[in-house]
Amino acid sequence: MINALLAATLIAAPAAWAEGGRAQPAGAEPAVMADVNRAAEPPAEPVDPNMELQSLINAWETNGAGAAFLRRASRNELFYTTASASVMARPEHRQWADFRASAYDEALLKAKAKYMVQQGVTTTAEQVRELFDNGNQMPDFSPEELRSNSRLMAVLNKAVGVASGKLDEQLRELGMDPSEFKAAPPEKRATLFRRAVTSREISRARATLDGVIVVKTFEAHNANGDHAVAVAIVASPKFRARIDNLVSSRGEVSPSPERARGEPLKAYMQAHRKGLMNEFGVRHMYDDQGYPVLISYGQAGNPYQGEDFQRRADQREVAFASAKSTALANFAYLINSSGTNRESQSTTASRATEGVARHVDGVTQVSEESYVEYIRQLDSSTTVRGRMNDLPGITELYRWTEKHPLYGHEINGVVYLWHPRSEQLARDIRGQNAGKASSKPAQRTKGSAGTVQSMDSMDSSDF
Fold first, then answer.
1. Is the pLDDT of residue 231 over 70?
2. Which of 26, 99, 199, 457 lies 20 to 30 Å from 134 when distance is taken between CA atoms?
3. Measured between alpha carbons, how far is 159 from 169 in angstroms, rounded to an integer?
4. Ramachandran area for residue 359 (φ above 0: left; ψ -120 to 50: alpha; else beta)
């Protein structure tokens, strides 16, 4: 039926096709012709998650809250950048959720590396040009080399002679040709011509990372299960001083009623429970009374996928412990951290001709081989270290367990909170605030391919 329709179409409407149109033979059903036309079209290429990420970031920087960050960064009032990374494992991997979290870590390290370079970079560079010509010096074997090679081959042949028959038999049983395993004929090479350009660069950067914070995260995927993630970070002198003041305040911080949110923080987390798996790092926020707080997110996957309740529960506890460790580390990275970044690169573009001499069956054969190649070697590493020393006032605000909406992986997360009032309470229990009047709280003032992104919980005015 399809072949007949195709033939009829080719005969009945050559002119229409020549003009770029598609003629439909009389009596043919439109649905059948649509199926034929779709079958002739090449399959669509899978969506590139990195391209989707860039579109998502561009939209946020153009129409979303990111526009304010980008505008102020263009005026050099703050530092703003984004960086991305792909998830290394496929969704079929039982620890895919942890690979996803690691991709966010990688993207954050890339973004911080950009900040380190902005803070100060040291670079050494070298370029080398080579031109060599020695076309008359073809390689050859000296009589001594030929005699030495003959003696060596004789010894080798005796050594393997006993086992060679059995080895050949075993190779044939495996469907392999024994001749492919014979020793290659002696060979000598000499460079006859070479033209090359080599560049080498080494860059080093080091910076204090106090106050560098994630303000937004992004994620994109295609129908094949390929995922890519991105983060946006911001740093400014104002925000760095704000973090230093909060940490050294001993909890004696006055609220800002005009910044108070309309609901308690825990209620906010409960209302946005489904979106918490898209939150990574630390956020600076305000509670329902206007107190400035630090919110840290941590999450980890449960790799167990069986039916045993106890094993699932055990692995869930392990995941929660891992998530807690991540959340506490986030505070250390924000409050007191430093980093180093090192990149070295070497590139060589070359054209060369080699003379080749091979000794086969007592005869030396000489030939020339030419090649063109481009070689790039890259070594890049970023290291960040943080330390938080006896900071009171950190509590677990919320914990959650959700299935990933696309693949069903169990993800367990925690939200940790530093609150100035909580620090005051901790110090009161310790007896460190004896004789000091604690500040009273202010009156509450109401104030299949796809992409996801975190909530806009920070404002450019904080920086």
1. yes
2. 199
3. 18
4. beta
The pLDDT value given to residue 30: 53
Cβ burial, residue 131 (10 Å; 0-12/13-18/19+): exposed
Contact 231, 216 (CB under 8 A): yes
What local confidence, expressed as pLDDT, does residue 290 receive? 95
Between CA 176 and CA 98 the distance in angstroms is 43
DSSP-derived 3-state class of residue 224: coil
Beta bridge partners of 130: 196
**Does the pLDDT at position 12 exceed 80?**
no
Residue 21 has, within 13 A of its CA and on its CB side, a CA count of: 8
φ, ψ (nearest 5 deg) of residue 449: -90, 150
C-beta separation of 184 from 427 below 8 A: no
Torsion angle, alpha carbons of 51, 53, 54, 57, to 10: 160
Strand order in 79-86's β-sheet? Answer: 79-86, 227-235, 213-221, 450-453
How many helices and strands (H and E) does the chain possess?
Answer: 11, 12
For 159, phi then psi, to 5°, come to -70, -35
Contact between 423 and 250 under an 8 Å Cβ cutoff? The reply is yes
Predicted local distance difference test score (pLDDT) of residue 304: 96
**Gap between the Cα atoms of 452 and 377, Å rounded:** 35
391 alpha carbon, distance to own chain's centre: 32
7 pLDDT higher than 50: no
Give per-residue pLDDT as tens, 240-260: 999 999 999 999 999 999 999
